[in-house]
Write a structure and sequence with these properties.
- Belongs to the LpxK family.
- Pathway: Glycolipid biosynthesis; lipid IV(A) biosynthesis; lipid IV(A) from (3R)-3-hydroxytetradecanoyl-[acyl-carrier-protein] and UDP-N-acetyl-alpha-D-glucosamine: step 6/6.
- It comes from Jannaschia pagri.
- This protein is of the alpha/beta class.
- It has 2 domains: about 160 residues, Rossmann fold; about 80 residues.
- About 30% of the residues lie in helices and about 20% in strands.
- It is built from 11 helices and 13 strands.
- It has a 9-stranded mixed beta sheet, sandwiched between helices.
- Strand 9, helix 8 and strand 10 form a beta-alpha-beta unit.
- The longest helix is centred in the N-terminal third of the chain and has 21 residues.
- The mean pLDDT is about 95.
Length: about 325
């Protein structure tokens, strides 16, 4: 699904007409999150957001998994596996599972930490603990009440913030900003400095700032003729990263978040790249949805989250015993 354009513009006629439905949606979310969650005996860190769509949660989970590993903590990721058929609990195995089975994000996350897909988050967390998890990283579960959360981090795309500030369907919010942030322990805004300065968040909670930076791979990107495609929350962020590396960006194609890479679509993308005499390039998340036969022909640009100041995060991890 693509977000409607009016979600990012100041409230107008359409969002006003949809406002009554937004109030119903917000009320339903409020009732759901008020239910008490269950404990699984280890700390649960939730990485979520307040808006529909991507904000950088997956790079955040990867960064947290790596930080916990540095602290000697064996963290497991629990995800609902959006886009996958598996109901779980099932531990993701990149050698046997595909994105159709478990979703694209869990396949990517499994390269960094043991990852479980489960439509029932509590069952998934219990399976992870039984397998030796010392902490649970709950991917995109901020509005899910199944588990008691010891640390909740709300991720915000600094470039778009909270859109028009209204709740679904009048805007992109899953719940009102003030209501959601009141339950969070930390916010993490992701984006370049100019976007960070333009983003104003209510306080508290404590705000972390981060950037998605290309991973140094030794690839000579400068001057490379590229045709880029991406099915993430904001594909333009990926295209801007490529421009920053100095590629000769001859064409781009924005896909919907998690959009299936069908044979017809892949054929069309390949034809566009050939006409432009350009190398096809995509994101890590999109690459796991490629059929094996094409993975050697489409280049991937990996990015990693760099958090400006880790001290508040480390203090929060200390507080919950990690």
């Amino acid at each position: 699904m693509r977000a409607p354009d009016f979600w990012t513009r100041p409230p107008g006629l359409i969002s006003t007409l949809l406002w009554p439905l937004s109030r119903l949606y917000a009320a339903g979310t409020a009732r759901r999150v008020a239910r008490p969650g269950a404990s699984v005996g280890v700390p649960v860190i939730c990485v979520g957001n307040l808006t529909a769509g991507g904000t950088g949660k997956t790079p955040t989970v990867i960064a947290l998994a790596q930080r916990l590993a540095e602290r000697g903590v064996a963290a497991h990721v629990v995800s609902r596996g959006y886009g996958g058929a598996a109901t779980g609990p099932v531990r993701v195995d990149a050698l046997t599972h595909t994105a159709t089975d478990v979703g694209d994000e869990p396949l990517l996350l499994a390269a960094f930490a043991p990852t479980w897909v489960s439509k029932d988050r509590l069952a998934g967390a219990r399976a992870a603990v039984s397998a030796g998890a010392q902490a649970i990283l709950l991917d995109d579960g901020f509005q899910n009440p199944a588990l008691t959360k010891d640390l909740s981090i709300v991720v915000v795309d600094a470039g778009v913030g909270f859109g028009n500030g209204r709740v679904i369907p009048a805007g992109p919010l899953r719940e009102p900003v003030e209501t959601g942030l009141a339950r969070a322990n930390l916010t993490l805004s992701i984006g370049p400095d100019e976007d960070q300065e333009g983003l104003h968040l209510p306080t508290p909670p404590t705000r972390l700032r981060g950037k998605l930076l290309p991973l140094a791979t030794g690839m000579p990107w400068e001057g490379l003729p590229v045709f880029a495609f991406a099915g993430i929350g904001r594909p333009e962020k990926f295209f801007e990263t490529l421009r920053g590396l100095g590629v000769d960006l001859r064409g781009t194609e924005s896909l919907a978040d998690h959009q299936p890479l069908t044979p017809t679509l892949l054929r069309r993308l390949g034809e566009r790249a050939a006409k432009l005499s350009a190398q096809p390039v995509t994101t890590e998340k999109d690459a796991v949805r490629l059929p094996p036969a094409l993975r050697g022909r489409v280049m991937t640009l990996p990015v990693r989250l760099e958090i400006e100041d880790l001290a508040p995060l480390d203090a929060a991890l200390d507080r919950i015993g990690l």
